[in-house]
């Protein structure tokens, strides 16, 4: 199908099959027919993130809830109870627990979905400006009415409604600044470019004149990639990239008006395709809980089988008996089979249905206290810990492996210029080193700076106006007037300091030797190079600092003028000096002169402007907004040597060289940094050399291999070049061994023919849709070779405070992209390695390709690794260092197990030159093969993959964006906060939850045990001695709140002790609180307490005239107090909140039971619980039995509580005796209060037992016979 243009030119349309590419036809009247044909392939801009609709909520929610095994189990119990021959309760009563749980979860899900619905409705009803062909102007429309092909007009501070290609910007440079905080959390501005060919518009774009089609890739979730082209009716194509795409959800900043055409709308936009919801991570405790529930199911089957066998025997011994439920007679075998299912219904409480709800509530409480911990708050940045997942808090207490990034994690994300080496000569910058050693962060001064340079709101962007296509040293006045014009203020509400702009990073003390050489820079040295002489040292110094200033993406800003001072203005006229000879031009050193090379006739100096103000700006007032600390450090270092970056736009970069004046470089291309090339390049037209120059900066591991190697024919030149490269390599190795980060700077001068040849292939790569990344990579590699080494520099990473204190039974691996020497030095500085450690370095031979490695070679290497793993020297501990290429081999399927064996024999592992993919592979390998709990921590986008794959992901709120924070389970302000998060909150969360789960199992088994023991004295009839409502409410209401408070507030050891004794963390690592022995002890204790609670009252009232429910009320009340006081004994930390909850539970118990007994005459037919509790409360024997039974039932638990806990008190006593005393004194839940509580119970009980003369008669029949 074809679509005609206004001139009659047609466009090809997609077929009915879903195309691999998207063709966008503009929504204009002239394209009406063609647009209607393709619009069916496009989605509307309306979004819906809700899971349910009003009419699907109940069925879908029930469907999802019954995917849980526990809910299916209780649904089975409910259905089973509807069978008359096995009915144990009234049908309605059996449904109550399941209905309560389903209702609570449904209400929670409904409220969450309703919140999403309101948010969707609000977003869909946002208003934007859409072009209307009928009116010929932009009109207001709701976001939900926007369609693919619509033209959208946006103003400053407006949010982008859909993904659209930028076609017009009011910015004279063809730029649009956007804020992407809604996508990646980054508040620094990003620059977007108008499509090539649309930049020259002098007036606002008229959509009716648009006669193009757009062909791009189908919708996908990759935020960092966009492939396509825009094709004119003349078939001329212009490539589209991510720099031309405005993403939905971003906000336009510092640009008055922009116009774009929508290519993706609604759920096809990249932000919506990335909205996959929060990931679900199952905790180790939850996995073990599922196993124990299965164990309880097996126990339930055993108990029901015992009763079923007993029922069969009883029927055999009593033939002709009628079954109470149905009034029928059954054979012993069939009667036993039916009794099995009756007991399944009766003992259903053994499976704790309310446990899952309680766990969720406990986790919410734990997260609340973690987020409000003042010790995890970073005051200078006003940042507190953030929680992104509720499911893994208890995993913090079981971490065995920590995988940590170095940059921004073990080190602060502050990069400071330390020293450099240019042309093989080292410049130590000793004064700068002294400044760094004596530097002390002053947060108060930082706050003053914040007030002065407050966010983007007080900064105006220096114009990146086009300064002229022709490259020159002189200034184009129209461009300079744009350069210093006031930009639109950024409407952000946050008042934060610019990233990477602390005095530590900006204040660089120059080296005096280098300053003296820098002052000698003049055009004379460039003249010598033009005569084909080798690059001189002075020219290398000049080009070195030029590369630092322009080979980056730093955005220049200046403080906005305030008060009555007039804004900075630029002269509109030039006063020209008299004609001067070439030699005189070269000799001029005055910084206020704008010098030119021989291609220019005049030397122009600034003259007065129309307002009489001279062109005079203060370089110190310029502010730089960088995306990384590396770029900020380089630009500040160049400015320290008076090579100041003044302005930047998509076409030109302006720097002030002071002694050479202001230089304007025409920017032709940027080859951005990527993890494959590990370098960045910028292609410019040099204003002095008048040649195409490529400046490249990157890691020395790749840059040194790209330098000139071929002989030039001049022996001295080749010899000097080789010596310089060797000296530079020695400097690199020396600096890296001191923990400094190294960076190589190089350049390449191209002829016009070389540039045109490369440019032709590069344009083809840019306009390609398939394999664009591969083609661009090949294009970059064709350009970045035979480089001229200018020098290298070192930046120092600032160590994080207390990053060296994290030690316990945790294995720490450092995964970094830095070189080996730097990583090892940082490891020593952070105390991850000790001076006595012996290092094993695994490094591959880069001269041997992997393809050449035979099976025998791989086996030999594997055997060597295995042998190294078993070497033992008692006087040393071992650490392993491995680089990226070797790591690629070590992660091979045939070798990875040997590699893991080796790592198990060392104390620490350092993986240097590791890629993001390798980081995630290491985490996955260790987690799956070792079956251990892993934690990954990082601060950058390169750490996201390992953060997501680890059991617990930690993001550092650094200055490299927020990708790591958004992908993490917990986000910290500083690495030092990890210590308390693990050792204190991790230990508490795991211990609390483990103890609460064990308490639930004990509580339910103890209560179910009463029903089980009673069957032995009721002919195994499945008859309960407690009324149905009390059975249901016991776990649902009476004993539900205390364990939740216990799980939220209990503290077995104080925070001070846990921090001072990291060895205590090993207890939770080894699962001691929730091991098999702990589970077995609680099960046995539940059986014992139910045994005592049943048989002591039974033999007390044996042969008495007590009725069934009166006897059951004694058991019910006694078990209630046993369970409550059991929790008191188990609690190590009791507060008024605990006692208030205990009191509330007791009041609730007696009020509901009393009300039920007073009002419900026939609530439990055919039995009658009327006035049962009231009669018991008036009987003194009731109190005596309750006290004595409670005392005997809790005696073993109390005696075990008197013994010090091996994982707690003994360890505390060994490591910190005074701290143990502090715990006992500070926390009323210690042994002293427990002893006094128990003593207050035992004395009255003993007195009442010895002096009571209650009449205890024996009459078994009245109790047992119900059938």
From TrEMBL:
Keyword check for Nuclease: no
The reaction(s) this protein catalyses: ATP + H2O + phospholipidSide 1 = ADP + phosphate + phospholipidSide 2; a beta-D-glucosyl-(1<->1')-N-acylsphing-4-enine(out) + ATP + H2O = a beta-D-glucosyl-(1<->1')-N-acylsphing-4-enine(in) + ADP + phosphate + H(+)
Bilayer-crossing regions: 70-89, 289-314, 334-357, 997-1016, 1028-1049, 1079-1099, 1111-1129, 1141-1161, 1181-1199, 1206-1224, 1236-1256
Keyword ATP-binding among record annotations: yes
Subcellular location: Endomembrane system; Endoplasmic reticulum membrane; Membrane
Catalytic residues as annotated in Swiss-Prot or TrEMBL: 405
Lineage top rank: taxon: Eukaryota
GO biological process per UniProt: phospholipid transport
Record EC number: 7.6.2.1
Cofactor(s) of this protein: Mg(2+)
Ranges where the P-type ATPase N-terminal domain occurs: 33-94
Chain ranges of the P-type ATPase C-terminal domain: 965-1199
UniProt cross-references to InterPro entries, sorted A to Z: ATPase_P-typ_cyto_dom_N (IPR023299), ATPase_P-typ_P_site (IPR018303), ATPase_P-typ_TM_dom_sf (IPR023298), ATPase_P-typ_transduc_dom_A_sf (IPR008250), HAD-like_sf (IPR036412), HAD_sf (IPR023214), P-type_ATPase_IV (IPR006539), P-type_ATPase_N (IPR032631)
Annotated binding of ATP, by residue: 405-407, 631, 673, 697, 741, 816-818, 913, 919, 942-943
Keywords: ATP-binding, Endoplasmic reticulum, Magnesium, Membrane, Metal-binding, Nucleotide-binding, Translocase, Transmembrane, Transmembrane helix
Enzyme type, top EC level: translocase
Gene Ontology cellular-component terms listed: endoplasmic reticulum membrane; phospholipid-translocating ATPase complex
Binding positions (Mg(2+)): 405, 407, 939, 943
GO terms assigned for molecular function: ATP binding; ATP hydrolysis activity; glycosylceramide flippase activity; magnesium ion binding
Principal place of residence: membrane
Protein family (similarity comment): Belongs to the cation transport ATPase (P-type) (TC 3.A.3) family. Type IV subfamily.
NCBIfam families linked to this entry: ATPase-Plipid, ATPase_P-type
Protein name in UniProt: Phospholipid-transporting ATPase
Organism: Anolis carolinensis (Green anole)
Taxonomic path: Eukaryota, Metazoa, Chordata, Craniata, Vertebrata
């Amino acid at each position: 199908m074809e679509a005609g243009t206004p001139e009659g030119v047609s466009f090809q349309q997609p077929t009915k099959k879903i195309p691999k590419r998207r063709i966008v036809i503009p929504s204009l009247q002239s394209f009406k027919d063609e647009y209607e044909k393709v619009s069916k392939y496009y989605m509307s801009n309306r979004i819906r993130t809700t899971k349910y609709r009003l009419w699907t909520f109940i069925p879908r929610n029930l469907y999802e809830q019954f995917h849980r095994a526990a809910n299916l189990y209780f649904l089975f119990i409910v259905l089973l109870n509807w069978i008359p021959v096995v009915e144990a309760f009234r049908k309605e009563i059996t449904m109550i627990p399941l209905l309560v749980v389903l209702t609570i979860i449904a209400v929670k899900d409904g409220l969450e979905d309703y919140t999403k619905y309101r948010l969707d409705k609000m977003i869909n009803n946002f208003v934007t400006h859409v072009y209307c062909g009928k009116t010929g102007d932009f009109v207001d429309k709701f976001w939900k009415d926007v369609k693919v092909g619509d033209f959208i007009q946006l103003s400053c501070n407006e949010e982008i409604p859909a993904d659209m290609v930028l076609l017009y910007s009011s910015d004279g440079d063809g730029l649009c600044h956007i804020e992407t905080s809604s996508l990646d959390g980054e508040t620094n501005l990003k620059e977007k470019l108008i499509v090539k060919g649309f930049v020259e518009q002098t007036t606002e774009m008229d959509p009716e004149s648009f006669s193009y089609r757009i062909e791009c890739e189908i919708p996908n979730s990759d935020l960092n990639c966009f492939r396509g082209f825009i094709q004119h009716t003349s078939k001329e194509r212009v490539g589209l990239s991510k720099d031309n795409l405005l993403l939905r959800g971003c906000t336009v900043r510092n640009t008055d008006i922009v116009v774009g055409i929508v290519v993706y709308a609604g759920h096809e936009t990249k932000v919506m395709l990335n909205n996959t919801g929060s990931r679900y991570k199952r905790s180790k405790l939850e996995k073990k809980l599922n196993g124990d529930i299965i164990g309880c199911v097996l126990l339930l089957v055993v108990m029901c089988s015992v009763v079923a066998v007993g029922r069969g025997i009883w029927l055999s011994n009593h033939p002709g008996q009628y079954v109470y439920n149905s009034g029928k007679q059954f054979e012993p075998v069939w009667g036993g089979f039916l009794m099995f299912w009756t007991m399944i219904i009766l003992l259903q409480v053994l499976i704790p249905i309310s446990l899952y709800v309680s766990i969720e509530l406990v986790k919410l409480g734990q997260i609340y206290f973690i987020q409000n911990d003042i010790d995890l708050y970073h005051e200078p940045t006003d940042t507190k810990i953030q929680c992104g997942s509720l499911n893994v808090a208890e995993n913090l207490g079981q971490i065995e492996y920590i995988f940590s990034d170095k940059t921004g994690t073990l080190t602060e994300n502050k990069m400071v210029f330390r020293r450099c080496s240019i042309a093989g000569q080292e410049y130590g910058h000793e004064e700068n080193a002294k400044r760094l050693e004596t530097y002390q962060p002053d947060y108060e001064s930082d706050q003053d700076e914040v007030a002065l340079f407050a966010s983007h709101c007080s900064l105006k962007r220096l114009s990146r106006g086009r300064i002229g296509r022709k490259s020159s040293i002189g200034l184009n006045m129209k461009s300079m007037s744009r350069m210093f014009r006031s930009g639109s203020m950024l409407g952000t509400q946050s008042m934060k300091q610019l990233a990477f702009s602390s005095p530590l990073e900006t204040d660089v003390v120059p080296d005096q030797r280098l300053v003296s050489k820098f002052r000698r820079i003049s055009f004379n040295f460039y003249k010598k190079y033009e005569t084909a002489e080798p690059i001189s040292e002075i020219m290398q110094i000049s080009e070195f600092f030029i590369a630092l200033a322009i080979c980056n993406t730093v955005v220049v800003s200046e403080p906005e003028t305030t008060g009555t001072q007039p804004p900075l203005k630029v002269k509109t006229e030039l006063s020209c000096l008299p004609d001067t000879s070439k030699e005189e031009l070269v000799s001029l050193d005055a910084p206020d002169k704008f010098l030119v090379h021989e291609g220019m006739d005049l030397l122009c100096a600034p003259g007065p402007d129309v307002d009489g103000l001279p062109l005079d700006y203060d370089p110190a007032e310029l502010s730089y907004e960088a995306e990384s600390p590396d770029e900020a450090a380089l630009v500040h270092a160049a400015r320290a040597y008076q090579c100041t970056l003044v302005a930047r736009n998509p076409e030109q970069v302006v720097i002030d060289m002071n002694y050479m004046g202001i230089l304007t470089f025409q920017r032709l291309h940027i080859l951005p940094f990527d993890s494959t090339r590990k370098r960045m390049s910028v292609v410019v037209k040099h204003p002095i050399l008048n040649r195409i120059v490529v400046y490249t900066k990157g890691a020395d591991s790749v840059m040194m291999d790209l330098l000139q190697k071929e002989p030039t024919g001049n022996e001295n030149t080749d010899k000097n070049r080789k010596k310089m490269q060797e000296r530079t390599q020695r400097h690199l190795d020396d600096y890296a061994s001191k923990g400094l980060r190294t960076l190589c700077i190089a350049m390449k001068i191209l002829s016009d023919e070389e540039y045109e040849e490369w440019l032709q292939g590069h344009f083809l790569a840019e306009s390609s849709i398939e394999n664009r990344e591969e083609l661009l990579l090949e294009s970059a590699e064709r350009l970045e070779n035979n480089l001229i080494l200018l020098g290298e520099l070192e930046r120092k990473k600032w160590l994080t405070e207390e990053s060296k204190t994290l030690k316990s039974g945790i294995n720490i691996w450092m995964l970094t992209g830095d070189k080996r020497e730097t990583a090892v030095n940082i490891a020593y500085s952070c105390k991850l390695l000790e001076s006595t450690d012996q290092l094993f370095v695994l490094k591959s031979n880069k001269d041997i390709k992997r393809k050449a490695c035979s099976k025998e070679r791989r086996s030999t290497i594997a055997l060597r690794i295995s042998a190294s793993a078993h070497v033992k020297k008692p006087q040393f501990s071992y650490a392993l260092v491995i680089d990226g290429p070797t790591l690629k081999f070590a992660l091979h399927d045939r070798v990875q197990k040997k590699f893991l064996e080796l790592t198990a024999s060392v104390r620490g592992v350092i993986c240097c030159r590791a890629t993001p993919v390798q980081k995630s592979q290491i985490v996955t390998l260790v987690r799956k093969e070792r079956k251990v709990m892993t934690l990954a921590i990082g601060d950058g986008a390169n750490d996201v993959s390992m953060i997501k794959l680890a059991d617990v992901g930690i993001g550092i709120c650094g200055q490299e964006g927020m990708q790591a924070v958004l992908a993490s389970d917990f986000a910290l302000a500083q690495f030092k906060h990890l210590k308390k998060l693990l050792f204190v909150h991790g230990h508490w969360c795991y211990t609390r939850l483990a103890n609460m789960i064990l308490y639930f199992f004990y509580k339910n088994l103890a209560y179910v045990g009463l029903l089980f023991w009673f069957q032995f004295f009721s002919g195994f009839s499945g008859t309960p001695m407690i009324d149905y409502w009390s059975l249901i409410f016991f776990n649902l209401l009476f004993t539900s709140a205390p364990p939740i408070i216990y799980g939220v507030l209990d503290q077995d050891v104080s925070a001070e002790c846990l921090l001072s004794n990291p060895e205590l963390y090993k207890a939770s690592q080894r699962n001691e609180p929730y091991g098999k022995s702990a589970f077995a002890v609680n099960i046995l204790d539940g059986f014992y307490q139910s045994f005592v609670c049943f048989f002591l009252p039974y033999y007390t009232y044996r042969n008495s005239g007590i009725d069934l429910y009166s006897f059951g009320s004694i058991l019910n009340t006694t078990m209630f107090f046993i369970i409550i006081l059991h929790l008191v004994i188990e609690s190590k930390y009791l507060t008024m909140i605990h006692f208030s909850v205990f009191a509330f539970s007791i009041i609730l118990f007696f009020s509901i039971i009393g009300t039920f007994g007073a009002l419900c005459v026939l609530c439990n037919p055919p039995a009658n619980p009327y006035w049962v509790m009231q009669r018991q409360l008036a009987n003194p024997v009731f109190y005596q039995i309750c006290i004595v039974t409670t005392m005997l039932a809790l005696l073993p638990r109390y005696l075990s509580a008197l013994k010090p806990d091996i994982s707690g008190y003994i360890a505390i006593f060994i490591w910190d005796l005074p701290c143990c005393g502090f715990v006992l004194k500070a926390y009323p839940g210690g042994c002293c209060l427990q002893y006094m509580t128990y003593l207050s119970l035992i004395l009255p009980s003993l007195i009442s037992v010895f002096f009571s003369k209650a009449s205890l008669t024996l009459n078994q029949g009245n109790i047992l016979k119900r059938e």
